[in-house]
Write a structure and sequence with these properties.
heterodimer; A: 176 residues; alpha+beta; three-stranded antiparallel beta sheet; 5 helices; 18% strand; B: 184 residues; 7 helices; 4 strands; elongated
């Protein structure tokens, strides 16, 4: 696959948790699929995603600031435009997301695209400074990691091949 | 973090003195465009993607304006490799003045050195991540950057190798392998 330089975009959302919902929210987060079973695996442009339940904002001495309340931090890094990713998220994993964000104030579900986008906009925190170590899409990274593994295997097995065999085998595996 | 996984998250939410917020708002746009600032952080090889944000109101955006929080907060989020202490340690040793540029206004900030005190300061302020997804949990940042470079060089090699006879191909292939050995 040809690599297309593409700096991942970011979304950072921080919203207050509805009063008394912290335990339910925790349970919903624990029940969410992990790894390959993660709903985010179904949105192929997602590099990273996280939810952080912030029990309370603290003051300089580490004491909760009043009025004490909890917040949910939701952030993700993904390929392409933010509106395109959030639209894909609403469409493909809206049900799972509703189970989490439904515990936040002002959230009315992913079914209404306009309201969903408005919620994300209202509670989004801008990113001030970022360090991004590579500029490539999820698909390009996956393809490059596959190639790396295949080339490693090929190189290990190629030592005893004649020049003709080497060229033929390389063409078969990599130049098709 | 489950054993064997390489990418992991860290989230640190720190209250800062109100006078520090204008400094961050003024310096971040320039710093964010500067490769000079970012290069040592990338070269550490720990970071996949890291972000620093500033939140001062809740809700942070929209109309009517949200309520002012008692303090501005820096939200630091990183997706990094392996050991957290080593990561923070490297931060303090390699980019101490960059650390000051971001966290100097955090309450009770001890400075990047001595390193142990700085590491302790950050570790105490971590908010545990409730849920985490990484598309390539087994790949370190360095591994991904190597794979992308290898892909590029292999594409170049493929173009050159297309018309070679078997003997010339083998010689070129051996040279290619020697060239990309560190990327495999």
């Amino acid at each position: 696959m040809r690599q297309i330089p593409c700096k991942p975009s970011a979304l950072v959302v921080m919203a207050p948790v509805r009063e008394g919902r912290q335990d339910q929210l925790n349970a919903a987060l624990e029940a969410m699929g992990r790894g390959r079973d993660s709903p985010f695996a179904r949105v192929g442009s997602t590099h990273f995603a996280r939810f952080v339940l912030v029990p309370a904002l603290l003051d300089g001495d580490g004491e909760p600031v009043g009025p004490e309340r909890s917040y949910l931090l939701f952030s993700a890094d993904f390929d392409g435009w933010r509106w395109r990713w959030t639209r894909a998220v609403a469409k493909r994993i809206g049900r799972e997301l509703d189970l989490i964000l439904g515990h936040c104030e002002g959230y009315s579900g992913s079914g209404d695209a306009r309201k969903f986008q408005a919620f994300l906009r209202r509670y989004s925190v801008g990113v001030g400074f970022s360090v991004i170590s590579y500029r490539a899409t999820v698909a390009a990274i996956r393809s490059s990691l596959d190639l790396q593994r295949e080339l490693r295997e090929f190189a290990a097995g190629a030592r005893d091949l004649t020049p003709r065999e080497l060229q033929g085998e390389w063409r078969r595996r990599f130049a098709a | 973090m489950a054993g064997g996984e390489r990418a992991q998250p860290v989230t640190i939410i720190s209250p800062v003195h109100r006078w520090w917020a204008p400094w961050l708002r003024a310096t971040w746009p320039g710093a964010n465009r500067s490769w000079f600032i970012k290069k040592p952080l990338v070269q550490l090889g720990f970071i996949h993607i890291a972000h620093w944000s500033l939140v001062q109101r809740m809700p942070p955006k929209g109309r009517p304006r949200g309520t002012r929080l008692p303090h501005p907060y820096i939200i630091f989020q990183s997706n990094f490799n392996d050991d957290l202490t080593a990561y923070v340690d490297a931060f303090a040793l390699v980019v101490p003045w960059r650390i000051r540029g971001v966290w100097q206004g955090v309450f009770h900030f001890p400075g990047p050195q001595p390193v142990d005190r700085f590491v302790q300061f950050l570790l105490e302020r971590i908010t545990p991540t409730s849920y985490y997804y990484a598309a390539f949990p087994e790949a370190s940042s360095t591994m991904i950057r190597s794979a992308l470079q290898l892909d590029e060089r292999h594409r170049r090699f493929s173009r050159e190798a297309r018309t070679l006879d078997p003997g010339a191909f083998k010689a070129r292939f051996d040279a290619f392998l020697a060239d990309v050995e560190s990327l495999l």
